[in-house]
Design goal:
Pfam families: ERAP1_C, Peptidase_M1, Peptidase_M1_N. It comes from Pseudolactococcus laudensis. Among the domains are: about 190 residues, tricorn interacting facor f3 domain (Immunoglobulin-like, Sandwich); about 130 residues, Neutral Protease Domain 2 (Neutral Protease, domain 2, Orthogonal Bundle), CATH 1.10.390; about 110 residues, Immunoglobulin-like (Sandwich); about 120 residues, Zincin-like fold (Alpha Horseshoe). Helices cover about 45% and strands about 20% of the residues. The protein has an eight-stranded mixed beta sheet with strand order 5-4-8-2-1-11-14-13, with no helix packed on it. Strands 16-17-18-20-19 form a five-stranded mixed beta sheet, with helices on one face. β13 and β14 form a beta hairpin. The radius of gyration is 27 Å and the shape is globular.
Length: about 850
């Protein structure tokens, strides 16, 4: 596909003066925009999408113009090159798919209300005003907004408001920035304000449907994170304020608009009376991620979307650095190993996956870059790997130099490597290029042959994969001395293994310490035996890593599932929360071999019950004053697995907790609420209970609770309930479009309800595209199917469904990836199911 034209090559904007008049009742707005900048040619085009432009003037003179909806542009001529002023007058509709300027709906005290907000990333500013809507086209913005304002309503934006005359709210001139970072939100909001030690005003805004106290936790986190980043980056936060705004309808998790960050409410607000530590950690990590972008992404911005990873990979890593610094007792890096690592390992093992840096040759391809497993999770692992390789001092110094040189400008990946190389004296580009530019990752095979330690690397695949001989610069991160720092060849042989072992105290040989690099390790039988024998002495992250490796190696056909199951059996009294999470991930992966209501399920449940029985009995069902963060987080996991395994005490306890809170199920303690709600459906489902869950879902403003209700009711054993759930998918008053993919996933991931959910998607795909098609969430439906389907018939049904749009830029790669995933699962089941079923008969 040929590269499309960059409009910034022809016109370089310097300032936008924007006036918008928004009417919520008619769902329309009027706009007037004056753009000053430099014309480099006399034939000019600006981006626009669905704008009804009525006039264009150049330097005060009206000119003819033409609209091209296919290229999303308005074209016109200017009399000469050089300094140019262009005025546009236009009108447009508010969107209904959470892009551009859009209404966001909620209920407060029985009244239906709305906030109006913006989402301009990636290329949706053009839906609000004519612009050079490309990240390199940085300019300043003077924004004024009028709206059908009611008493008590307010509006916030990137910069402070400097005047309000006759209902026209005018904001101070922004710093130089990309169009996708402009933002505003207006409506009936509450707020909590504070200040950093350097004087930056920080505020959290939300609708008044929420408890005021729900704003306290995010405000505290935001203030402390800004202070940490200022110290770490050695660059002051560059704006007068940092607003954090919760929107009732928001497709992504959050958006880093400079000084006016917008969030899905579940990613910002924290119920002070009944929330889990995990949910508060999630909020803290999202806030830290978006604040990292205020420097890395906003102050310094990628030149084009192919370097999106410069924004997202870095911010995804820095969120953990920041939260670890301000809340060290959370041990957040342990969470990194059970969240980001498996996500990246799973998707990056599929042949055809995109690389972290990938070319973008069509606007519709931009949103496909936002692959959480690659640009975010894998990219973050690579940045963690680089930080460990360089050391934190050199890493921080390199970042300071990077910001100092490139602030308010645009960069490519090489610019970051140059800054880090200068600070560290190491060739960062040579080290990182193989990781950023190549898809996939290696498996490091470690063996001892004739007293030689042999290290080999090759690309790892799950399912069919074409080995193209790719090589990586693998940081060995070993616990032994006397070994190389980096493996860059396909194979290296190191003589004198016995002597090396003696010099290292004969301790088990380990690679990829702290799971800090993006590869698997496969030890030979003798080395594996020594490692396995020492498992009880290892730190938690090493234990997690061993479980993850055993699972992936089995899925890739490089080891037996028996190795995984035998390893899991050694953790039958494991007190670490993150190790138990890794065990749970492995067990959920093993479930694909287990058919419901069969002897194999009985045997599997017996194994599960043995694994979690000791921790279930140790922790019980109730929080204990003064208990560790670890125990607070762990409690729900053994409870959940013991309920799944039909432990009589666990099932009875769950039902008892439900009955104690039956009049207010939201009051069930948050850490065990999910398992209690689900168990009640599994054990005692009635039409009345299902309706009770739907009523609670409609009433609550707690989106965490809503997701728990979704998962619980979707665990039904009644097809009539499945039909009831599906009948609500298009009821946007109940199931917000932002949450539809979660509802769909809950049904399509279960064999019982899969066919019905898929049939609904096939029949309603056009409607889904209408609601979500302009946004990055649309492709998630395809990914969910790829994760769930597992037969030839289902594969063919998927192929038939996607045939009409398989070559569309927004879907092409996602569809091919899903087909590969499904085919891999079919082959895996054919090859391994009988063996795994037999394994659980004997263990």
């Amino acid at each position: 596909m040929s590269e499309f034209k960059h409009l910034y090559d022809d016109f370089k904007p310097e300032n936008y003066k924007i006036f918008l008049d928004v009417n919520r009742e008619t769902k329309r707005f009027e706009g007037q925009v004056t753009v000053t900048g430099e014309s480099l040619t006399t034939d000019i085009a600006f981006h626009q999408k669905d704008l009804e432009i009525t006039s264009v003037t150049v330097n005060g003179q009206a000119v003819d113009f033409s609209l091209d909806e296919a290229s999303e542009t308005v074209a016109f001529k200017v009399p000469a090159t050089g300094e140019t002023t262009v005025d546009f007058t236009y009108s447009a509709a508010l969107t209904d798919n959470m892009t551009g300027i859009y209404p966001s709906y909620y209920d407060a005290d029985g009244e239906k209300k709305q906030l109006v907000g913006t989402q301009f990333e990636t290329h949706f500013a053009r839906q609000a005003f004519p612009s050079i809507d490309e990240p390199a086209a940085k300019a300043t913005f003077d924004l004024s907004v009028k709206f059908d304002e009611k008493d008590g309503e307010e509006i916030v934006s990137n910069m402070p408001e400097i005047s309000n005359e006759n209902g026209v709210h005018t904001f101070d001139t922004t710093v130089k920035m990309s169009s996708y970072l402009l933002a505003f939100v207006f409506g009936d909001m509450q707020s909590k304000l504070g200040k950093t030690k350097n004087g930056t005003q920080v505020g959290v805004f939300a609708t008044k449907a929420h408890k005021a106290q729900a704003l306290d936790f995010p405000l505290d986190i935001a203030i402390r994170v800004i202070e940490f980043y200022e110290d770490y980056f050695k660059v002051a936060y560059p704006l007068p304020h940092s607003w954090h705004i919760g929107l009732p309808d928001f497709s992504a998790g959050a958006m880093e608009n400079w000084g006016a960050i917008t969030y899905r409410e579940v990613a910002l607000l924290a119920d002070p009376d009944n929330s889990t530590l995990a949910s508060r950690q999630y909020v803290a990590l999202v806030i830290a991620h978006e604040l990292a972008h205020q420097w890395f992404g906003d102050l310094v911005t990628m030149e084009w979307w192919d370097d999106l990873w410069l924004n997202e990979s870095f911010a995804n890593m820095m969120e953990y650095v920041a939260i670890d610094a301000i809340e060290p007792d959370w041990h957040i890096w342990e969470q990194f190993s059970v969240s980001e690592a498996p996500m990246a390992l799973n998707r990056d093992a599929i042949d055809g996956v995109q690389s972290v840096h990938v070319a973008v040759n069509h606007p519709d391809e931009i949103n496909t870059l936002f692959d959480g497993a690659i640009v975010y999770a894998k990219g973050a692992r690579l940045m963690v790997m680089l930080r460990k390789w360089l050391g934190d001092t050199d890493f921080s110094a390199g970042l300071h130099a990077y910001f100092d040189v490139h602030q308010y400008g645009n960069t490519v990946g090489r610019d970051l490597w140059d800054a880090l190389s200068a600070a560290s004296g190491r060739d960062v580009s040579a080290f990182m290029t193989s990781w950023i530019e190549q898809p996939g990752y290696p498996v490091l095979s470690v063996s001892v042959e004739n007293d030689e330690l042999v290290l080999r690397q090759q690309q790892f695949f799950t399912g069919e994969g074409v080995d193209q001989g790719r090589l990586w610069q693998i940081p060995l991160n070993t616990n032994w001395t006397g070994l190389p720092d980096v493996l860059s060849e396909a194979e290296v042989r190191i003589p004198g293994f016995a002597a090396l072992s003696a010099e290292n105290g004969d301790k088990p040989l380990l690679f990829n310490a702290q799971n800090a690099a993006h590869y698997l390790v496969k030890y030979d039988a003798a080395l594996t035996e020594k490692v396995t024998a020492a498992v009880p002495t290892f730190d938690t992250i090493t234990k997690v890593q061993l479980i993850q490796s055993a699972l992936k190696l089995a899925e890739g056909g490089l080891s037996d599932y028996a190795d995984l199951v035998n390893l899991l059996a050694t953790f039958d009294n494991e007190p670490s929360n993150v190790v138990n999470l890794a065990m749970s991930q492995a067990l959920n992966a093993l479930k694909i071999f287990i058919d419901e209501s069969t002897d194999s399920e009985v045997n599997f449940k017996k194994f599960v019950a043995r694994l979690f029985d000791k921790q279930y009995n140790r922790l019980g069902w109730t929080k204990v004053a003064g208990e560790s963060f670890n125990d607070e987080q762990l409690r729900a996991l053994p409870i959940s697995w013991e309920v799944y395994a039909e432990n009589a005490d666990a099932v009875a306890q769950s039902s008892e907790v439900f009955s104690q809170h039956a009049t207010d199920i939201h009051s069930i303690p948050a850490d065990i609420r999910q398992v209690v709600l689900k168990n009640e459906i599994v054990e005692n489902e009635t039409d009345e209970l299902v309706q009770k869950y739907f009523d609670a879902y409609a009433k609550t403003t707690d989106q965490t609770f809503q997701r728990e209700l979704n998962v619980a009711v979707s665990s039904t054993k009644k097809m009539t309930t499945v039909e009831t759930i599906i009948s609500q998918y298009r009821n946007t008053d109940l199931v917000k479009p932002q949450d539809l993919r979660f509802w769909f996933s809950s049904l399509v991931s279960r064999d019982f309800s899969q066919a019905a959910a898929f049939e609904w998607l096939v029949e309603n795909w056009d409607w889904v595209q209408e609601k979500l098609g302009g946004d990055m969430a649309s492709g998630d439906f395809i990914k969910v199917i790829g994760n769930s389907f597992d037969t030839e018939a289902k594969l063919q049904a998927f192929i038939d469904f996607t045939e009409p749009f398989k070559n569309e830029p927004a879907f092409k790669r996602i569809i091919e990836m899903a087909k590969t995933q499904i085919a891999a699962k079919i082959a895996l089941l054919a090859d391994q199911k009988a063996k795994v079923v037999a394994l659980f008969e004997t263990i």
